[in-house]
Amino acid sequence: MLKCTRCGNTERFHATAHVTQSWVVDGELNFVEEISSCDEVTHAPDNEDEITCAYCGSCLVADETVVEYSQLIRKIHTALSSSEQQDAAALKLGREFSYLTIQTSEDGYDYTFYNRDLSEIDGGQLDNPDLSMEEAVEELLRNSEFVLFRPMPEIDAVDYEQLQKMAYDRFREVKHQRDKQAEVF
User: Any idea where the Large polyvalent protein-associated domain is (predicted)?
Assistant: First the structure.
């Protein structure tokens, strides 16, 4: 049975089926109207299909979900085990070189996702101080588009301080360019 790993739903999911329809078409074979909505089902949803929770939109793959999330947890554990800091971590996500930085805060964790050129994509706070660093990273990645990629990309630890410095330098560079453009106008 399917179960959404984000909200726990076991009742309603969205899946893709392939069907044949009868249409009215014009002289150039452009669609005009539908005659029948389903003449024949050519592919019913199965465990190879991407399934989406009807309630929260979380994406899962039927029988592979447990495998995918266990891979995610293992990759997070391996990456964080090689991190030198206990209260902060920086992770490189996949070949596209997007990054996640996370650090402990009074109320839980502060985090930032960066794209490969170190421009900030998203950031915020995860307000749950009871989570371990691994659990916090797992929650952030499960709720991001990262887990939609198949096969799941690698997760590697990178130097937190160095990544923060590079992101700050990138921020200053972009700000400098914007300031120069503002002077022109």
Answer: 85-166
Backbone angles phi, psi at 171, to 5 degrees: -60, -45
pLDDT of 67 reads: 41
Cα 151 to chain centroid distance, Å, stands at: 13
Q: Which residues contact 126 (CB under 8 A, 6 or more apart)?
A: 108, 109, 110, 111, 136, 139, 140
Q: Which of 106, 4, 107 is nearest to 57 (CA)?
A: 4
Rounded Cα distance between 106 and 130, Å, is 11
Phi-psi region of 149 (alpha: psi -120 to 50; beta: other; left: phi over 0): beta
Element (H, E) at 150: none
Pairing of the two strands 13-14 and 59-61 = unpaired
Q: Residue 166 phi/psi, 5° resolution?
A: -65, -40
CA angle 19–25–31, rounded 5-degree value:
65
Q: Report, as ranges of residue numbers, the positions in the chain whose pLDDT lies below 70.
A: 1, 46-49, 60-70, 95-97, 145-153, 185
Count the helix, strand and coil residues of the chain and give each as a percent rounded to the nearest 5: 30, 35, 35
Structure tokens at 142: 């499960």
Return the closest-CA partner of residue 147 out of 6, 2, 1, 30.
6
pLDDT computed for residue 64 by the predictor: 47
